[in-house]
Amino acid sequence: MTKILLVDDDKNMLLQLERILKSNLENLETLKAGDGKEALKLVKKENPQLVLMDMQMPGLNGLETFAEIKKAAPKQLVIMITGYGTTDTAIEAMKLGAYDYITKSPDLPEILLPMVNAALRASEIMNEVVVLENVTDTQNVNLNVRSIIGLSPKMQEVYKSVGKIAGTSIPVLLIGESGTGKELVARAVYHNSNRKDKTFLAINCAAIPETLLEAELFGYEKGAFTGANERKIGKFELCNGGTIFLDEIGDMPMSIQAKILRVLQEHELERVGGTETIKVDVRIISATNKNLQELIAAAKFREDLYYRLNGIQISLPALRERREDIPDIVSYFLKRFNYEFGKNISEIPTRTLEQLKKHEWPGNVRELENIVKRAVVTTTGPILQLNLRSAGAAAAETARETTLRNQAFDPATPLDALIDAAADSLLERMLIMPEDDPERRDLTGKLEKALIVKALHKLEENQVRTAKLLGITRNTLRSRIAKYGVQ
Ligand SMILES: Nc1ncnc2c1ncn2[C@@H]1O[C@H](COP(=O)(O)OP(=O)(O)OP(=O)(O)O)[C@@H](O)[C@H]1O
Question: Could you name the Gene Ontology cellular component terms for this entry (predicted)?
Fold first, then answer.
């Protein structure tokens, strides 16, 4: 038996709603309340699956009643009914966690039924929920610093290896599928090394065309080629004393491989077009999702370079090989995105978690991260509404994100094109969002906040460098950090 509570001071409205619902839903019991107090009593006593409530009522109004209901029964699904021109308060209610709202209009029956059906399905799923521990407690976590999550035996092997080489400068080779956390582990190696106070630079070898890559890594002298109007210092030199992370090393062209080998063996290099030999001391952490042995057999990768890079090899397991870590990873991302999007989601339906555990995760943790992020953005209320049917969409998003990241790495991509692409995907989302969705508000502010949070993360929370990177003064940066409440 499905129970729906109807709340309105207008008796005719109550009867109209009852008629619409009863003629379309089977096994339905309707409860009726004429004011907020009575509604609250019935919610506590009858535990209905759904409440349909008018916003304007004498005594306790809809919003106040809603707040009381949420106190008494936090998981209660409520759809608010508003008159024309009062959508503002409906949006308030949505922000407080109402499931949805509907405007009184002649086509109410057509809109009401699909909405009620969807809400009833949601209520069914939400009846089984897992309460995630401490998800809303962000007190003791620094969410700007990315943590590596997972206590499965395979991940413990990873931590053990990172621990073993802490304090050394041995080259590290990270292997694993895309999205398994290779860059994250590279940063962990760096943070635990005796070079942690020196520079860390990351470069994606696959994203940069051969000639530019050589110039990026080794620098060039003025006049080395057309367009080389000034001397440029390369990443190895900039990183002297520090750590460089060469991502997608399997895509490194043969011509550059020889030069990298020389850095590893002799600790020296020459700038493009230069004759001076420059001494460098750089720790190399490299990563690949390709099979380097196969590349060696195909004469696409130097065997001697492989042995040099492979001081210690750390293999990152695919997410499907450590499914037991999925609940912890999900609650970590929930915590992070609750914070980032100002949400308060603390529960996840058991069925959803089971689905997530069974999924194949071709995009690994990055794919899971995108799915949770999308769900957090679209969820109202305390229970995560995640739809794995949109996994295809999430995978497409992962692919788009990867392309965008690769383009971003390519200095030949004009900055305007990147800004354009980011604005495009933002607008695509807005086109499918309701016009009065509160998420739409202050987009430019949110963009600015995201830029600042990400820049601080990339630059190891160094405010001086972050301000410089963003082209603002340190004072402006400080005031923005305060304004947006960046931790
Ligand atoms: N164990 C983990 N715990 C928490 N977050 C993780 C974990 N592994 C990966 N992530 C997150 O997933 C995303 C992808 O991770 P990362 O970039 O390190 O993967 P990758 O293996 O270097 O991928 P690619 O090969 O595509 O460059 C990042 O946002 C990262 O923070």
Answer: cytoplasm
